Amino acid sequence: MGKKKNRSKKEMTSNPKNVVNVDRILGGAYFDTHHEETHVATKVRPAQLPARDAEFTGRDVAVSRLCKTLEKGGAVALTGKPGVGKSALATEVAHKLIPSFSDAQLYMNLSEVGDGDADLDRVLEKFLRALGFSGDDINQDLDEKITQYRSALHGKRCIIILDGVRNEKQARYLLPGTSSCATIMTSRYNLSGLTAVKRESVEQLSITQAVELLSRVIGKDRAETDSESLKKIATLCGSLPLALRIAANRLRDRESWSLAHYADRMTDERRRLELLRAGDLEVRASFSISYAELSESRKEIFRNLGALPPQGFTTDVVAVLSDITVDDSEAALEYLVDANLIESSSSPGRYHIHDLLRVFALERLKEEGGEEGVSALTASMVHYYTFVASQADSALHDGSASGNPFSTAQAATDWFELEHSALVYVVKLANKRELDEYAVGCAMSLTRFFERRLHGNSWAIVSRTALDSARRMQDRKLLIVVILEVVQFLHKFPSKEISVMALLDEAHDLAREIGSASYKSRVLLRLGELAEEKGHLDEAQRLLNMAVQLARKCRDTHQEGKALLSLADVLQVKGDLEGAEDSSNKARLLFYAGRDKHCTGNAWSNLGEVKKERGILVEAHRCFSLAVRCYEEVHDLHCAGMAYLARAEVQRGLEQIASARSSLEKARSYFLPLRDEFCLNRTYVALAQLDLFVEDFEAAIAHYSYAVTEIAGRISRKTLVRNSVLLANAVERGRGTTAAEPYWERAAQSAEGVANVDSFSRKLLSERNLKDRRSA
Questions:
Q1: Residue 634: beta bridge partners?
Q2: Mind spelling out the 3-state secondary structure of 603-637?
Q3: Which helix (H) or strand (E) holds 109?
Q4: Which stretches in the chain have pLDDT values below 50?
Q5: Which of 252, 254, 251, 247 shows the shortest CA–CA distance to 275?
Q6: CA torsion, points 654, 660, 661, 667, in degrees to nearest 10?
Q7: Other CB atoms within 10 Å distance of the CB of residue 739
Q8: Is the N end or the C end of the chain the one with fewer CB atoms within 10 Å?
Q9: How far apart are CA 225 and CA 697, in angstroms?
C-alpha cells in the first residue's frame, strides 16, 4: 500500500480510494450515488462498540422503533438532558443491529473533542486507520480526508456511533455520505441545524421503569423488602438513568444500608448530589460538562434557576431575577432548552427544570454567590410572586383594574391555576426563611382563588403556614385576619386536628384587646355562621345583628354587607322571608356601591332563593340571571354553575323546559373542568328529573346511571344510595317492574350499613321490600 512521499496531488486524487464527486462539504449528510466502489484491506474488521449494559431496562419501545428506523441505514440523533441514558440506548440499538451491519462498527466519544479543524482531523484519522488506511494512504487535507472517509464507507453496511456530539459541525464532518450505513449520534444539544437526520428525544424513565432498574441491580428480594423506600429513591433521582444507576450501585455495594436509610439521606437537597456518586460515575460531573460550555451570562441565568420554584417558572421571573429584558430572558431560556438543561412547557413562556439539575444549579449558586447571594435572590423571587399574586387577586375582585397586567378575571384565574403550586412553594419558603410579611401576603392573595377553585391540599398548606408566620410577626390585627381565613378554609374542609371554636375564641380575645369595632364584627360574623351551622338559629341571629351594628358603626360597608347576607340566610331558615329579602337587598346595595361584583352576585343569588321560596318564580329567575352575570364577570365558574343550577329549577317550575336544559348544560360545562363531583352529581340528577318531567325515561336512566357509575366513588354513600334508588325508580317507570328488579337489588345493597339514608330513599326501598314480600 506504500506510495512515494513526494507523489503529486494529482496522483493522490487519481487513486480510486480518494475519488468522490463532492467539491465541498456543505452541510447535512451528503448521500452521493456516484461514489466509486472502494475495497479496504483491513487486517481486523473494526468492532469498536462499547459493551452493553446488562441491566439496561425501560427502553423496549424506543429500541424497537430505532431498530426499525435504522434497519436499512440512515442517521438518527438521540438528544436529551445529561444523564438521561442516551449513550446506553445508542449502544443497545447498535448491538441489536450488528447482524445487518457486519462490515464495521465504529465508535467515537466526542464529548471531550473540540470542534476545531485539528480536532476533527484527528477523529477522521482514527476512523480511517480503523478502516485499514495507514501512513501516506491517509490524505493530509481535512476536506480530502472527509471525502476519503466517506468513500471508504460507500456501499458498506457499517454502524457508526458518534457519542456526545457537541454541535452540528462535528456531526456534518463525521456523517457518512451513504445511506447504507447506520449512524447513531447522541448529544446534549438538540442539533436543530442538521438536515437528513431523524431525531429521537430521550426522556427520563417512568417511576415504574425506574424502580425496575433499581431492582435489577440490587436484587429483587432486597427491593421487595421496602418497595415504598425504593419508589422514593427513584423519585428523588428524578427517574434519571445515570442517577438511578449510581444509587443502585451504591446500594448494591452497601448491603448493610437499608433502603429507608438511603432514601432519608437523599431527601436533603444539600447532600443529594454527593450521594449520587459511585466510583467514576457522578451526576454532578455529568451536569458540569454542560454547565462549563455555557457563556458567563447564561451560567448566571442557569444558576438563578436553582432559587426558583421546582414546579416551573416563566420568562418574566427570570428576567426580574437576572435583571434583563423579557426578550433576553426568552432567548437565554430557549438556548438552555436546546442544550437540554431545561424543558419548555405546553404554556408559552413557561419552563421546567429537572429536579436534579435544579439542585445542581442551586449548588452552583451557593458556590459562586455565597449564602448572602442566595438569600438576596430568594427574597427577590418571593417579593416578585407576592406582588404578582396581589395583582391577580385584585383582578379577581373586580374583574379588571386600571394598570393591572391582568386585564380580566379569567386571565388572573388562569395565572393562579398555572402557578398555584409554585405559590404554595413560595409561601413555605418565605416562612422557612422568616420572610413572614411575604408569606402572609402571598397566602392572603391566594384565598379568593382557593374559595372559587377549592384546591384543598394547597389551601391547607398555605393557610397553616400563613398562621405560623402571622403568630411570629406578633401583629394582632393581622393575626385576626389570618385566623379568620383559616376558619374559612375549615368551613370548606373540616379537620379534626384544628378546633374552629378555639381559633374563633382566640380571634375574639385579640379583637377585644385592640378595641376595634371592625375586627370584632369580623369575628362575630364567623361565630354567627358557626352557630347557624350547629342549628342555634336564635344565637346566630343575635351574633349577626351585633356584627351588622359594629360594622355600620365603623363604616365598614363591605363587612356590613357580608353580615347582612349571613343574617338573611338565618332569617330564611327561620321562615322570616320578608326579613331575609330585606336583609339581602340591603347587602346588595352596599356591595354594588363598593363595586364588589362577586358579593353582588351572592346577594342576587340570596334574593333568588327567597323569591323562589315565596313562589315568585319570574322574579327569582331574574335574580339568578343577574347572579350569573356577576359571577361570570369575575370568572367564578363554581358560583356561576350553582346559579345556573338554581335558575334551571325555577325554569322547570315555569315549564321552560328547553331553557332549563340549557342552564343545566351550562352548569355542567363549568363543573367539569373544576372536577367538582358533588355539583356534577346535582347537575346530572337535575337533568334526569327534567327528562322525567317530559317522560323521556331513557334519557333519565342515562343521566342517573352516570351519577351512579361514573362518580360513585367520589360522592358520599348517602348520595350514592339516593342516586341508586332514583335510577331504579326511573327504570321501573320506563321499562317495567321486571327490568327494574336488578336495579332495586343494587340499590338495596348500596344502602346496607348506611345509617343516614334520606327519608325519600328509605320510603321507596321499604315499599319495594313490601312488594317483594307480598309477591313471595
A1: none
A2: HHHHHHHHHHHCCCHHHHHHHHHHHHHHHHHCCCH
A3: strand 104-109
A4: 1-42
A5: 247
A6: -160
A7: 12
A8: C
A9: 55
Identify the CA nearest to 396 among candidates 461, 458, 464, 444: 444
71 DSSP 8-state letter: T
Q: Are strands 281-282 and 182-187 parallel, antiparallel or unpaired?
A: unpaired
> Which grid cell sits at 158?
457499517
- Output the pLDDT for position 159: 95
Nine-digit cell at 316? 418574566
Query: Vertex 58, ends 56 and 62: CA angle to 5°?
Result: 100
Question: How high is the pLDDT of residue 498?
Answer: 83
pLDDT of residue 34: 38
Place of cell 367520589: 714
- Enter the C-alpha cell of residue 716: 358520599
Strand order in the sheet with 350-352: 313-314, 350-352, 343-344
Output the CA torsion sign for 161, 239, 385, 438.
Answer: negative
For residue 330, give Cα distances in angstroms to 81, 287, 320, 325, 336.
Answer: 19, 22, 12, 9, 10
The full DSSP string for 9-30 is HHHHHHSGGG--S-SS--SS--
Q: On the CB side of 613, how many CA atoms lie within 13 Å of its CA? A: 16
**Which residue is listed with cell 432514601?**
263
End-to-end CA distance of the chain: 106
Note whether 631 and 643 are within 8 A (CB).
yes
Instruction: List the one residue out of 289, 298, 323, 329 whose CA is nearest residue 83.
Output: 289
Helix (H, G, I), strand (E, B) or coil at 773: helix
Write out the three cell numbers for 475. Answer: 401583629
Residue type, 382: V
Output the CA torsion 286→291→293→295 (10° steps): 180
Residue corresponding to grid cell 480503523 = 130
What is the model's pLDDT at position 715?
66
Q: Using an 8 Å Cβ cutoff, are 769 and 733 in contact?
A: no
Looking only at Cα atoms, what is the longest distance across the chain? 118
Grid cell at residue 593: 356601591
pTM score of the predicted model:
0.80
Eight-state DSSP code of residue 306? G
And the C-alpha cell for 734? 320506563
Let me know how long the chain is. 776
> All 3 cell numbers of residue 221?
428480594
- Identify the three-state secondary structure at position 104: strand
The residue written with cell numbers 329549577 in the block is 649
